[in-house]
Specification:
Oligomer: single chain
Bound molecules: zinc ion
CATH superfamily of one domain: Glutaredoxin
Order of helices and strands: EEEEEHEHHEHEEH
Largest sheet: 5 strands, mixed
Strand content: 25-35%
Number of strands: 9
CATH architecture of one domain: 3-Layer(aba) Sandwich
Structural class: alpha/beta
Number of helices: 5
Length: about 150
């Protein structure tokens, strides 16, 4: 029996390299960092929030093999910045277990409409392409709980 092809294809995050803008596959569930970009060799960091553009949402979020915390934010939104430390912490603590994505509602109005984002910040937990939970406003403890982090 020939089993040279027996290893299952690894589940990958499809992420856009922030340097060369190549879409690259990053192995999900792997904690070791950084993952070099296949295009330019520079690091793809999964331990901090990743900006995801509308055109990449299907591949990067809906098709993600692991849960994704999606922060819908706007540049002009002061309260959105209050969530930044929490999202940074979650991305670092849960790297390899889930991904933290950021969606700018001004650059992705169709996504904001699709998910009925009435105000920012709104944070969604998406697993297997489905919305599991959402947090509206600045709720750091809720966001931590959505990511499975212990509360303080
Ligand atoms: Zn690159």
């Amino acid at each position: 029996m020939n089993e040279t092809q027996s290893a299952p294809a690894p589940a990958n995050f499809q992420l856009r390299c922030e340097f060369c803008l190549e879409r690259v596959a990053v192995p999900a569930g792997v904690r070791e960092l950084p993952h070099p970009c296949a295009g330019c060799g520079r690091p793809i960091r999964i331990d901090r929030p990743r900006k995801v553009a509308a055109e990449d949402f299907e591949a990067s979020v809906i098709g993600s093999p692991l849960p994704v915390i999606v922060d819908f934010f706007a540049d002009w939104c002061g309260p959105c910045k209050w969530l930044t430390p929490t999202l940074d912490e979650v991305a670092g603590a849960a790297a390899g277990r889930l991904l933290v994505a950021k969606v700018d509602v001004d650059q992705a109005p169709e996504l904001a409409e699709r998910y009925r984002i009435g105000s920012v910040p709104t944070v969604l937990l998406i697993r297997g392409g489905e919305e599991i939970e959402r947090s509206i406003g600045v709720e750091p403890e809720r966001v931590r709980a959505m990511a499975g982090l212990p509360s303080d």
